[in-house]
Every structure is written in C-alpha cells, then in structure tokens.
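Subject: two folds for Thursday's group meeting

Dear M.,

Sorry for the delay on this. The cluster queue was jammed most of the week, so I only got both jobs back this morning. I'm pasting them in the order they finished. Each block is the input sequence followed by the predicted structure tokens. Could you check whether the formatting survives your parser before we put anything on slides? The first protein is the one we discussed after the seminar.
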Amino acid sequence: MKTHIGVYIFLFYLLTLPAAAEPLPVAEPEAVGMSSQRLERIGQTLRADIDKGRMPGAVVAIARKGKLLYYQAFGFLDKAAGIPMRKDAIFSIASMTKPMTSVATMLLVEEGRLFITDPVGAYLPALGKMPVAVMKTDASGQTVVDTVPAKRVMTIQDLMRHTSGLTYGDRGTTAVHQMYPASSASAPRDYTGAEFIEKLGTLPLLHHPGTVWEYSFSTDVLGLLVEAVTKQSLGQFLDTRVFKPLAMIDTGFIVPAEKRSRYAKALPNDPDTGNPQSMINLTKKPTKFECGGACAVSTVADYLRFAQALLNRGKLGSAQILGRKSVELMFADHLGPEIQNNVEKTDPTRAGFGFGLGFAVRRAPGISGILGSPGDISWGGGMGTYFWVDSKEELVVVFMAHTPGPTRLHYRKVINALVLQALVG
C-alpha cells in the first residue's frame, strides 16, 4: 500500500509540474490568420531533406500579432550520435549577432552617450585617419596598393549600415582584401579587441566612407566602440540591457558547461560538395574578444523574443529596451542614392533590398525573388540561421539550423515561401 501511495504521489507531482514557458503567448494559427494545414508543409519539407542528408535538423518559430502559432523542432541535434533536435537547442547565430550589437548602440544614442553621426575616431582613435586604397599597376605589370586621404571620416552610422569602407579578407581577392583578417569568425581567435583595432588602423580602406555598401568588420568595430563607451564587455552590456530584460536566458558569447549538451552540431561534410565543413566552437573557451559581428549563440525562443521586441517598437511585456522612434530609425533604409548598393552580392536572396541599422530592409513589393512586404527587415547567419520581421503582417519568424555551406541560402528561400504561403487572413 505504501508503495502504491508513493507512486500516486510521484505521478501527482509530475502532473502538477508547471509547463515549460513558451517564448510568447500561444494561439491557434487560424486565430491569427494562418492555416494549420498549410503550415504542415514546413515539417514535410524539412523532414524530407533531413532524411536525404541535406541538413541535420532545425528549429522553427512563427509569431503573428504577438502570438506564438508555430514552434517545432525537426531532425537531429547531433545526427552522428542519434540525438533528436530539441526546441531549446543552442545555435551559433553568426551574423545574427549584428542586429543585437546595433541595438546596443542605439541604447547609447538614447542616453546621449554617442550619436550615429559621430566620427568613429572620436572613440577609437586608431581608426580616425585611415586612408583609402588605390590599386595601380607598376612598370613590371604587378598590382600595387597606393593610398589617398579619405574624402570624409568614417561615422558610427557607416559602421551600422556597412558603408565604413572596411571589408572582410575572405570577401574578395584583391591586394587590399589580402591585407585584412578573413572574417568575424577568425579575427577574435587571433586578436584581442585592442590588437584588432590596432591591426585595422594600419590598413587602407577599400572604399571612401559613405560611398559603397560593403559587408565587413563594421559591426565588430561597432561592438568594440560600445565597449569603449560603456567600459564593459559587449556581452556584459547586452546581458544587462537586452538579454535579461527580454528573458533571453540562453543567449551570450559562450556556451557554458551546463548547457553544452544542447549545442547543435552540423553535418561533418557539406551535402553538395562532400567537403568537410567546420564551425566556430563556442563551447571550449571564449574568443579573445566578444565580436559584435558574429560571435553570439542563442536559441529560437530567445531570438524570437528579441525580434518580437523589434516588431513592438522596442517593447516586450513590461520591458521597454528601446524607444519607438529609435526602432523606426533602425528599420529605415539608410542607403541613399549616392551609395552603391551591394547587398544582393552578399546575399542573393536580398535582391532589391536596402539596409537599415543592422539588417536588410525591403524597398518595394517587387524586384526580390522572395515573398514579403515593403519595409520588412531580415538577416541571416553564416552557420545557417535566419530571421525576419514583417511589420505590415505583424509577423516574426526565426529559423535555426547548422548548415554552414551554401545550402543556407536555399533554406532562407524555403522558409520564406513555406511560412508566407500559410497566410490566409
């Protein structure tokens, strides 16, 4: 009898445990104008690709009108070990770190501690007088790099919209590209923040500031500028001002030991080329600096709350992380007609997009080959993550997978189509 009573007590305990908190209030898809039947195509498509070995697994969340209507995990967290994907899986979000660094900057703008029109050199003097490269051919036919003074100084706005004149070493083959560190993933392994800024300060710019959109180390510099102003690490500042207020409990710049079992793994080889593929490992030790361009980890739930706060013009629940006008400025297209727009060259799915303060901004209903609304904002990460916010449709979508090869661009189009075809009201 005592054994039976013990079993009953244990079962009662299990049944009365609080359910795991969802990232947003939950609603049936039909209650917010989406079709449950059509949403099933997401799972059908992803499961088929997982079965074919095209991807290890993924997590997808969709919210409309502030309600969570879809939140599913597919495939494997670790395919080799046979571990199923879980909704709270942790992913390297790579360049989806950039919008968070931009939010950190706008927090300082709101406090009057800096302005986006300020020269970068006022905060990071080593970058105050960078010349601009001019490539010439010498008498022997070799390309040599000469320099000229920049036509104007690099501003914080240039960093936020990628018109600083900086570049990534792995984004081209010119003599100037070869001078730069390869990427946001590699630079913080090789340099401390101070060493990185010192290194950049010895290099020429690829373009005159404010003239060309060039994907670059701009946001890594922006993160170090935030550190210079706040006297905190970027992670500490974001944790206090963004992550904790928004209950982003699994977002940061390293995966702590107690959470490493939730860190998703990529396939060992690219499904198209068969070549080995690797990812930055953020479980072992911190990078030498917390790079604002690509070094964070997060979960779908955490990032959904961050993106929903952007849709809500800076507010989520009782937390108001930014004012409404600050978010409106971030959502605006900051690439004027005088700026050469190369956004599509970096991400072909962003044809016809401009760029705001931290993410791409759709300019018109047409031109782009993906579905959406004018003014929607989006960006993805090089490891396979992707998000967008559509203010017109009151829609937020977060997709996370570890597909670091070119196939990640395919899944940006797949998720875009499968989500938006389910809008019926």
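Second protein, same layout:
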Amino acid sequence: MGQIAIALTDYGIDFTALSDAETNGRTYATLDPVALMLHHTASENTSITTIRRGRSDLPGPLAQLFLEEYPERKLWLVSEGVCNHAGKGSVTTYSNVIEDQPVVFPPGPDVYPGFSYNSVYYGIEVEGDSWDDFAGTPRYWLAVKVSAAICTAHDWDPLTRLISHKEHTRRKPDPFWDMPQFRKDVAIELMAPAPPVYDSPYSVHQPAWDKAFDQGVVTVHSDPHKTVTKQELMTIFDRLGLLEG
C-alpha cells in the first residue's frame, strides 16, 4: 500500500484505487512532495479515464487523486507517483511552502527552478466548473477531509502546505473556491478529536440539509458531517422559531 493510500485509510476515508496506482506515475522524476495542490476539472463530465491516461496535449496521469462527482461521488486514487498537474509556476510560492510561510496571491512569474514542480506537489482534481459546484457542497467537504488526511500523514500545517493551482501560476484560475477559507476549514477539521466518518453521497439526511440551507439555517461553510455545539444547536432552534414564547 502506497503513502497516499495509507493516509486515506488511516483517516477513515473511502476511496477506490486504480489497479496500477502504485506503478503508473511519470518516470522523468521521483515524487518528493512538500504540499498538496488543489484543482478543479472545469467540467462536470470528466472521466477517470481522462485523469489516468491524460489528453492529446498532456499524457497522464493528471493527478494523484480525483474526486469524481458524476455519475456518483467517488474518490479515486489514481497514482502514487509523479503526475502532470502542476506545470511551470512560481518559485516564490514554492519557497514559501518549504519555509512554512503563507503563500502570496497572485503568485510570482513562472520560473523553472531546475526540477519539475510535478515532483514536489501532490495534486487532487475535484470535478466541477463553477462556484456553485463547490460552495458548501459535500464534494467541498470531502476535499477538506482528504486534505486533512494528507496533512496528518505528513505532519503538514494546512495553512502553509495546501495551495491552489491559481496560487502556483497566473495561467490558471482553479479551484474556484476561496483558498484562505479552505485552509481554515482543514485546520478546523484537524482539531476534531477523531477522524469523522464521511456519509454516503446519497444520505437520507441530505434532503433535510438542503432545506436548512435554503432557509438560511446553515451556511455555505457549515460542515454537514461535523457535530454541533449546544450553542450552535440553540441558534438553529432560534432560527427555526422554536424558542418563541
């Protein structure tokens, strides 16, 4: 079992590993990760085949992890090796990462530092192409948990070792979600006393969650899989009008 598989398993996250995940990485470099880079696919019909095999202009694998949303939510372990996902980018961002300093946005100019950035960053592709695909959605919170698992395995600070493609290079806008908030959500996740169990994507609780979201009882940054405090529960009761009279 490879390093990523162990990290996900130890954190209690369900995933499906490709049969060649431990051997299918690019051979031009050795993976020595210093951070996890977050991406979105810019499409709602990305296939695991594309992430594994690549495109006509870029051979695969395209990321170590793929969070597929359609036709069902599924986390794939694509590769334990080097993947073509980062490309050229900012040496300033890389320097800040290895020095555990916050990344700066927008990033510096693309610079070739004498090695491939693909060899120093894990990559996860999250399926979706708009802010609405991610804001407070189960796939967003699963990305939070996956990031927490990787940070736990490597003893990384989520505030400095989680970066986005758009913080690596000015050529890319992904992912659409707010990275400072994402890092905070991962930090909060890591404060939990035990790894939470991720509910199935078609949970019986989802309709009630959707209704609460529509009514403003919960917000886009409310984690549907996290326990609530008594104070939060009373706030929910109050917003529902159950404390009147």
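Two things I noticed about the second structure. DSSP finds eight helices and ten strands in the chain. The first helix runs from residue 3 to 11.

Cheers,
T.
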